[in-house]
Amino acid sequence: MAAEQDPEALEALAAARPLLTDLYQATMALGYWRAGRAREQAEFELFFRGCPFGGAFALAAGLRDCVRFLRAFRLRDADVQFLASVLPPDTDPAFFEYLRAVDCSDVTVRALPEGSLAFPGVPLLQVGGPLLVVQLLETPLLCLVSYASLIATNAARLRLIAGPKKRLLEMGLRRAQGPDGGLTASTYSYLGGFDGSSNVLAGQLRGVPVAGTLAHSFITSFLGTEVPPDPMLAPAAGQGPRVDLAARVEAWLDRVCAHLGRGVQEPHRGERAAFVAYALAFPRAFQGLLDTYSVQRFQMPWLESISIAVSNNIGEEELARLAQEGSEVNVIGIGTSVVTCPRQPSLGCVYKLVSVGGQPRMKLTEDPEKQTLPGSKAAFRLLRADGSPLLDVLQLAEEQPPQAGRELRVWPRGAQEAWTVKPARVEPLLRLWVQRGQLCEPLPSLAESRAFAQLSLSHLSPDHKRLEQPAPYPVALSDKLRALVASLLAGGSS
Amino acid sequence: MAAEQDPEALEALAAARPLLTDLYQATMALGYWRAGRAREQAEFELFFRGCPFGGAFALAAGLRDCVRFLRAFRLRDADVQFLASVLPPDTDPAFFEYLRAVDCSDVTVRALPEGSLAFPGVPLLQVGGPLLVVQLLETPLLCLVSYASLIATNAARLRLIAGPKKRLLEMGLRRAQGPDGGLTASTYSYLGGFDGSSNVLAGQLRGVPVAGTLAHSFITSFLGTEVPPDPMLAPAAGQGPRVDLAARVEAWLDRVCAHLGRGVQEPHRGERAAFVAYALAFPRAFQGLLDTYSVQRFQMPWLESISIAVSNNIGEEELARLAQEGSEVNVIGIGTSVVTCPRQPSLGCVYKLVSVGGQPRMKLTEDPEKQTLPGSKAAFRLLRADGSPLLDVLQLAEEQPPQAGRELRVWPRGAQEAWTVKPARVEPLLRLWVQRGQLCEPLPSLAESRAFAQLSLSHLSPDHKRLEQPAPYPVALSDKLRALVASLLAGGSS
């Protein structure tokens, strides 16, 4: 089978499983179809309501996975048969015939580029198309975007703490929430600013740089009585006779122990044999492994050039300590705390209907936190002269974009009064990626998105970038959007 | 392609990705191979060090996924090529030839049956086979067991709180850590005691009962001006003329509003239209949807028979409130708090080498918490006369099993003194599932494991089952195992 030979094809197939959804998407699809509304043109927005981890920013991620999912979206025979088995037995068979033909060839997606700064209420994705189809997409798109963005944001925070020079490696596959949780974490922690991952599959499928050396089981497996089949090693320069590394280590042991004032029996024999075995396998990339890191400093200049890597339950606090000036640690492996995001393990994105048949829709609710913003919208980032973002403005799609150097009245969410702002620059936020099922422009590579994320973050003001108790970044409505909200609220309560 | 037509085959292919591992497994494999030790017989144990969520028990889960992974484990050409691209360029090509032939045909697995009560230090899995192969399995097995067991345990706690009668549904796919995080969560929350899931793929691939009705977007999509193409509904009994449901609803509206003392304009038109549309699609399974649940009680007997389902940020505390006697809620949908396990998002299982070539191995470390228990072991649960577990005992594989009615001296971990116990019954804990690559007995179905989990929990004493500040369940060592630990500790420090 071709898929067995091609991990990427397999991955694409496995990722594009249209039944990875909540059953109520299928029951609603039936409801729309029965009401004759399956093909009505609808638009949903995917956004989050609050930034994760007590911060004031998030990074948008997951678009590439969404696009791949959409393009392959098609219910196979077995999928339709399964749905028929869980929907009421008296369901009209014509509905299932309809489902067999459903795909995303009429779906249009606008989105923040991956790696963009994202703020509450600003759509990460706008998804337009036939009501039945775009409803079916809700759960998989939420699943693909929320965790990817959460991980990218978490990684970006850790990178901000570590500073630009430390090498940060994600090593959390074994702690991840399922195999794909691990793959997603490795991919998007790289996007968020890590340097690489221990996860080989993320290297193979996503091009994430992979890294790894050895674990304690390797040490434990050696007693010191093992005889390497070939203890000889050629000089690194390629010239000269091969040397017996195992014998050389024994010969040096006396001298080193004397120098350190230790007994020659003190170093554990199994440990020594393991390090020799590792050096024989990796003559140019030796790495020792200590269980507990408490270095004694000796006066040996070559010790200065040794690269020290640590990993063990490292979270934001511990990382801050390691990142302090003067720390000799230069590679930091992080597992659980980057992969599972223990401080907030889900981003809580939502996917809300904003228009049907060109008419704005809004969820009316007693809880103002849960009110949605109606209508097909555009979003812009207003920038100061120094390039730092001032605020994001949401407006109706048909409105004129804000203009650089021109005064503008906007209504920041949560504020009682309007603000008048004069942006030095204006950036449209949402790009058209998929139009009626067709990709409009190539998606940036993962490495490009990673660079874009670091660039975006570098422009964000320290007030918003601060990790604890930051100033919230303002997201505002245009006059017209605010008026639409008010009129729908008034209409809804009549 | 066949896989396109068969979701299970596709799933199996996608799950069995041997590169879903940490790179250091591959570097260690090279180290073992270079040292001539690839085929040495080794045994690893997979266990956790502390029960999750502040409780005193966990449920073992994930074995089925592990067995599937092992049986399909094989490095494809593309996998070996990728490894060659990330290992040093001067690596002996014979190593990669060796990897091409690696599979699990010499691997043996003993394990707790899925749904078993599991306690700290007792192996969930014992994995024996050639050193190189069983080392490569570390990360995928940890990834497959840890999260599955965490979710099953979390679900079991929620079931204990809810009591046996409430219907508990997992609805967290959109909050899951990646698509497979969702699939794993749906599968193992069912094993842990939930009644079903909203996740359709879990139904299709794992046989989890699926459930779902409608979301707010369905309501929001209706204005009330829509005309259903066919508003007629046949009587449920199948006899008599069809009725115009939409007209019937309008006709009843006056009477109901008068009865409730409300104005006839008060119910929202769009909401009414949505409910009519839903009832037309699901005439035998109508479900209304309210945004905020604050029922006013009216004197109408038929209201008593209505099933009320709730879902919104329900964690352990909120569930306890809903589970109280007299609550009218009988179906409870839980998302984030079951799926992401926010209180402790990873179980932290470890996979430790316990023997090589029949010789016991032990990790020597300054941190007694991280010490491992050496040697190939057997594990037994000692039971009281009422069938409740008294303690688990770990002993060397060659020792005689404890016997019912016979006094036994054991050393509970963490205690200073030996205990003498006389079990009424003795259960061996670890079963042989895979012998040299062959499945020895059929794995229980998911539903069987679910029933076994509930049965196991029903026997656990309330002291250990209590969710907050429970009494720790004792895990003890035999005399001989304790002596082995002592002798290796003494040898290691010499």
CATH top level class name of the largest domain in chain A? Alpha Beta
Major sheet strand order of chain A? 13-12-1-5-3-19-20
CATH architectural group of the largest domain in chain A? Alpha-Beta Barrel
**Unreliable parts of chain A:** 1-5
| Overall tally of domains of chain A | 2
Largest interface (CB within 8 Å) is between: A-B, 126 and 126 residues
Provide the gyration radius of chain A in Å.
28 Å
Q: What name is given to the CATH topology of the largest domain in chain A?
A: nicotinate phosphoribosyltransferase
Counting helices, strands and paired strands, the structural category of chain A is: alpha+beta
Helical content class of chain A: 25-40%
Could you give the count of β-strands of chain A? 21
Oligomer: homodimer
Explain what the structure shows.
Chains A, B: One of its GO terms (cellular component) is cytosol. Chains A, B: Its EC number is 6.3.4.21. Chains A, B: Residues 19-146 form the Nicotinate phosphoribosyltransferase N-terminal domain. Chains A, B: Belongs to the NAPRTase family. Chains A, B: Residues 377-484 form the Nicotinate phosphoribosyltransferase C-terminal domain. 2 copies of one chain form a homodimer. Helices cover 37% and strands 18% of the residues of chain A. Chain A starts with a helix and ends with a helix. In chain A, the strands form 5 sheets. In chain A, strands 13-12-1-5-3-19-20 form a 7-stranded antiparallel beta sheet. A 6-stranded mixed beta sheet of chain A has the order 17-16-21-15-14-18. In chain A, helix 4 runs antiparallel to helix 8 and helix 8 (138-162) runs parallel beside helix 14 (316-323). Chain A has helices spanning 2-5, 7-15, 23-34, 63-72, 77-86, 93-100, 131-136, 138-162, 179-191, 200-206, 216-220, 245-260, 269-281, 316-323, 336-339, 446-459, 462-465, 479-493; strands at 41-47, 58-59, 108-111, 117-118, 125-130, 167-170, 196-197, 232-233, 243-244, 308-311, 329-334, 350-356, 359-360, 377-383, 389-396, 408-412, 419-421, 425-428, 431-435, 438-439, 475-478. Residues 1-5 of chain A have low confidence and may be disordered. Chain A has 494 residues and is α+β, with helices and mostly antiparallel strands. The first copy, chain A, is globular, with a radius of gyration of 28 Å. In chain A, helix 14 (316-323) links the parallel strand 10 and strand 11. Chain A has 2 domains: 7-155 and 344-492, nicotinate phosphoribosyltransferase (Alpha-Beta Barrel), CATH 3.20.140; 216-286, no CATH class. The first copy, chain A, is built from 18 helices and 21 strands. Chains A and B meet through helix 1, helix 2, helix 3, helix 5 and helix 8 of A and helix 1, helix 2, helix 3, helix 5 and helix 8 of B.
